[in-house]
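Hi, does anyone understand the following?
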Amino acid sequence: MNTTQGSLTVATPKAAPRGGRLRALDGLRLIAALMVACYHYGGRGGDITRAWGTSAAHVFPTLHTPFAYGCLGVQVFFVISGFVICMSGWGRSLRSFFASRAARLMPSYWVAVLLVTAVFALPAVAYAAVSPSDVLVNLTLLQQPLGVSRVLGVDWTLWAEIRFYALFALCVVLPGASRRRVILFCAGWILAAAIAQGAHQPLLDIVLMPEYAPFFVGGVGLYLVHRDRRDPHAWGIVGVSFLIGQHYAVRSLWNAADPNAFAHRTSFGIIAVVAFGFVAVGAIALGWLDRVNWRWLTVAGALTYPFYLVHEHLGWVVVETLHRRLGVPSYGTFLLTIASMLLLAYAMNKLVEEQLTPRLRKALAAPRQ
């Protein structure tokens, strides 16, 4: 049976969304975070070279090229984010949506900014901390558009996330989420992002994020697939998003013509990793991974965000301490650094997120007279 809403025909869902936590999505989050960590520790140059005392290409002569693809973990994160934000925003008020997102992002972020600043200020640490004024601006998460030095190298992705939240809140959550509205949002954003790319207008680029929009939109489309796997509009959104997303990923990361590149990624390899992100979230959306329901995956998902925040900069300090000062072999240093950052993330989750997130959410969600 079909019902009509405006210009879109709405099919009665053939498969209702399944209840319960999607623990496989938690596991995929951790995989994406570990991909990014592999990139930061062994798949690029820059400050990690100082930490190892030589190029990571010499430290990991076989793995440095696979590690170079780890930066695409960010695109996988964006697909996951599109799925999760659509799922969590459906049926929520704007106040509740804002409270949920702010309470989720900010407590660990504030602690990570202050922690990295404090560690970098230690005399024994060779990495320079940003100025006190810039640290204070960093606490707002608006340092990138304001042109302020960043404390955390990964915070550019949070700036992209915030813009996605704002667009979704204004276009979907505020008027009330529905299948029709979500489809129009996805189609409108993809088209507007393409126009912005052709217009070469910086303001449009900032608002519409042509390079990252396909990944967020693809995730939203996959949530529609989760609600109704036979929805042709949802599958169309996912397909178009993948086609455009792989284009931007290849354009940004394919460096075969650069003789000084740290590692040469192939276009096929980039497309394959992007496809992995879409396919993995798609498999979760379709219920193919419902059996991947181990409870420890919930813990893994909880560690992902604080791990992502602290692993890069504090990882430099741990790598340098273990490898150059204590003489731990490179692969041992790599594994111990990952383990230490996960342990720190666990402490942040228990001491910061579990304590502050519910209180902040409650305070922000409470109605005001």
Q: What stands out?
A: The radius of gyration is 21 Å. The first strand starts at residue 2 and ends at 5. The longest helix spans residues 330-365. The beta strands are 2-5, 8-11.
